[in-house]
Design goal:
348 residues; Rossmann fold; 13 strands; globular; binds uridine-diphosphate-N-acetylglucosamine
Length: 348
Amino acid sequence: MTRTLLTVVGARPQFIKAAPVSHALRRAGGVREILVHTGQHFDAAMSDIFFQELDIAPPAHNLEVNSLGHGAMTGRMLEKLEIVMQAEKPDAVMIYGDTNSTVAGALAAAKLHIPVAHVEAGLRSFNRRMPEEINRVMADHLSALLLSPTQAGVDNLAAEGIVQGVHHAGDVMYDITLSAVARARGESSILAREGLSPKGYQVATIHRAENTDNPERFERVLAWLEQAAQTMPVVMPVHPRTGKLLEAQGRKLANIRLIAPLGYLDMAWLVNQSAGVMTDSGGLQKEAYFHRVPCTTLRDETEWVETIESGWNRLWTTREYAERREIADYGTGHASDLIATKVKELMG
Ligand code: UD1
């Protein structure tokens, strides 16, 4: 019998993570997936291009909730998701990562007694000032199936008393990176378009509220990037939040080229061919490792502890990298198939 899975996405990294899982569900068969886009990320460069490039089915519902404070955003999503879930009556709800869309999806489903599957469960920064950390903790405690990309995630869940339904699944972003690199090699023209030479530039991104919302800290991050740019040019695809702030402040950045947000293939190739990455993004820290490019994380802690331990990533608060080694945690590029199997089991 065909089962119905309702997937909630809303922010850029969720479109990327949902793509390989959707493909794996299609391959496995027996599942009708209903995609709900909360609307959190809404413009073409932050949303539509990912649906096209990554072959994601268009959302069955777009809730168009965006550009609001945390309370209003999460509240409106919760209200609208409940209505959609009551109408669609899914056998399970799938959520991704740590955004406001994640926690709204988890809460709406749990209150309707629909089992929740969380992809990227168990990650912790142990910094409750980050909205993402609150979202993760809540989402995990509401989930029946917890699919962790790493062993550290499994251990974090155990420390919070969550052991049922927990699996070390590997990382779906590794799955999609493998196929993206293979395609981008032939299809991406990003280096030519920006006049860049392989290994002759660094890539930077900033968007975390913890970095952008405090003016003093934001300035510290910008000054740090400007210093790094003295040794080698920096290219920075600008997140809308960061772009709005730079514009409002009239802040110019020395030796840093600001470019519009990129699609997934161009971004994969930009990182693959770079000499280094500097970012406050969780996803990009790991992607840097997938491309075997060293990363500096512009935060005081990270959820991806194995990237630090393996010498491919360092926090901006430390000067040295650990000794380099490979990371086994993220799997072999088949995390999505395992997740599809576990979700089908959950739905019976
Ligand atoms: C969210 C997630 C974060 C994730 C990030 C990836 C939360 C709490 N945070 O942060 O975990 O790593 O997405 O990008 O959910 N905007 C646009 N166009 C868009 C999207 C956003 O202009 O397409 C604007 C919004 O109006 C807002 C700002 O950018 O002013 C920030 O957007 P927001 O939805 O708050 O989330 P992110 O900062 O992206």
